[in-house]
User: Which sequence fits this backbone?
């Protein structure tokens, strides 16, 4: 009987992230940007980082209110003056001007919104080459596609035009100048064309900021915007969150497919959107992926076991990849 693989520790997971995924070297300056709820993880990265990088800096900010909210200006400036940023924070900093401006200057940035110890240990024990191979296959299948259609038994049936849009492969391997993304990762995503998506999407996995769904949330999409939100309290919560931001928050900003075989639905969108066999659709800001939607929020929702068509080709059947 084969031996059960020993589970790695939080410190070992942090070392894997810094040394293997980010390739932090002994001549680089590393910034760990965290907040109080994720202090333990942030400080773990700091302690490990001190042994790997030339210099390690730990900085803690107040938790942001929503995903995509900017960090304080002095922190945005500091992000531009280091070589690598690792950001275990309560809300995502991926879709912020602070992240974009630092990336332009060549800073490598790993965002880890709402990451938990379990997610770090589980997902960073995955074989990165296996995730890379799956990600490459999905991205290859997406090349030249004009329309993506998603259908589920619960009522999802939405079509999103994507012809010519940048296809982004997110594996968590961020070793080159200016690269950024979630860590852990494993997804292929892009920005559908603005004002052109139509249909219905029924989220039945989880929604960023809300967590695992007790009942499905149905959103009717017309000309690229969510116009009707049906369901119980979770549907109201999603609507209210978007409504606080304004009209552009209702825009369909992203379509993505998870490619991480170790990821599980936990209620934490960082891990949930990477789950193999799921897709996610996000509302709001997509400037970071080549889109034109400028909003102070980016909220992903997970759809389980979908049928996914790239033009007329079925590439996923009830959550099983066919590529």
Assistant:
């Amino acid at each position: 009987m084969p031996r059960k693989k020993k589970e790695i520790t939080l410190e070992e997971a942090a070392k894997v992230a810094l040394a293997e995924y980010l390739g932090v070297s002994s001549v680089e300056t590393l910034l760990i940007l965290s907040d109080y709820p994720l202090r333990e993880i942030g400080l773990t990265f700091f302690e490990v980082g001190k042994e790997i990088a030339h210099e390690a800096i730990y900085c803690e900010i107040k938790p942001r209110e929503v995903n995509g909210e900017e960090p304080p200006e002095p922190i945005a400036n500091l992000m531009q003056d280091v070589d690598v940023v690792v950001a275990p924070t309560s809300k995502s900093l991926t879709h912020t001007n602070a992240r974009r401006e630092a990336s332009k200057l060549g800073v490598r940035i790993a965002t880890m919104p709402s990451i938990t110890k379990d997610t770090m240990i589980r997902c960073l024990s995955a074989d990165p080459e296996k995730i890379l191979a799956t990600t490459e296959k999905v991205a290859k299948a997406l090349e030249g596609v004009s329309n993506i259609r998603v259908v589920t038994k619960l009522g999802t049936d939405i079509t999103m035009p994507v012809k010519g849009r940048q296809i982004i492969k997110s594996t968590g391997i961020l070793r080159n100048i200016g690269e950024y993304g979630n860590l852990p990762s494993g997804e292929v995503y892009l920005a559908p064309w603005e004002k052109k998506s139509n249909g219905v999407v029924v989220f039945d996995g989880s929604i960023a900021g809300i967590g695992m769904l007790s009942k499905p949330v149905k959103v009717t999409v017309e000309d690229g915007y969510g116009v009707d939100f049906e369901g119980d309290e979770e549907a109201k919560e999603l609507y209210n969150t978007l409504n606080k931001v304004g009209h552009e928050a209702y825009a369909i900003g992203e379509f993505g497919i998870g490619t991480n075989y170790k990821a599980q639905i936990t209620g934490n969108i960082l891990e949930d959107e990477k789950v193999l066999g799921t897709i996610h659709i996000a509302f709001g800001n997509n400037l970071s992926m080549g889109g034109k939607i400028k909003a102070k929020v980016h909220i992903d929702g997970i759809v389980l076991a979908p049928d996914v068509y790239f033009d007329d080709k079925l590439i996923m059947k009830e959550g099983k990849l066919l590529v």
Residues 77 and 136 are 34 Å apart (CA to CA). Residues 128-142 form the longest helix (15 residues). The chain has two domains: 10-123, 128-321.
